[in-house]
Amino acid sequence: MNIPNALSSLRILLTIFFVLAILKQRFEAALWLFTIQALSDLFDGFFARLLRRKTDIGAYLDPIADKVMLISSYIILCLYGLVPKWVLAIIVGRDLIVATGFFVLSFMLPLRPSPSLLGKTGTIMQMVTVIYLLFSETRPYLHTFFYVTCLITIASGIEYSLRGLNVILKREASVKSL
User: Can you tell me whether residue 113 is helix, strand or coil?
Assistant: First the structure.
């Protein structure tokens, strides 16, 4: 296993400990665990490019690790009353729509996950929001973080949906030209 894939796997493993820390109300430990997870996401992509270690498994493992980390975090924080249900619904709903679309398209064509800049921005904002929530005791700007995160999440969901529609339309056009 190469370094980038090991970091993605670590992110998945640390999710278990993050959830346990929240359940035990050990928020400082949860903050550190989540920060390590967020940094591992940054570094796995960096090392994959730097070391030229991009792999097919890594193309799937990295976004899966992101989703495991983020969805688990938002679910547990929502259950604990720290994240509103509407924020959770937007984040989980967008991921379900995008993942379902990708899997449907992958049956039609050979596809490899390719994140967009807006998608990466959404992931970063979701991470920053969790870090802010766990770091700040007063959280004066928490609703601003929720709104910005959700707007970017929705925009990236729309972008991925349009990308998927474009793939379908191109495929239809190529089939009709035969």
Answer: coil
Return d(Cα 75, Cα 94) in angstroms, integer: 14
Element (H, E) at 177: none
How many domains would you assign to the chain? Answer: 1
Q: What is the CATH number of the domain that holds 45?
A: 1.20.120.1760
Residue 134 CA to residue 22 CA, distance in Å, equals: 10
- The alpha carbons of the chain give a radius of gyration, in whole angstroms, of 17
Determine the Cα–Cα distance for residues 177 and 60; give it in Å rounded to an integer: 32
pLDDT tens column, 40-96: 999 988 888 888 778 888 888 999 999 999 999 999 999 999 999 999 999 999 999
What are the φ/ψ torsions at residue 34 (nearest 5 degrees)? -65, -40
Instruction: Note whether 47 and 4 are within 8 A (CB).
Output: yes
Q: Which residue range forms the structural domain that includes residue 38?
A: 3-176
**pTM of the predicted structure, to 2 decimals:** 0.93
Joined tokens for residue 3: 């370094």
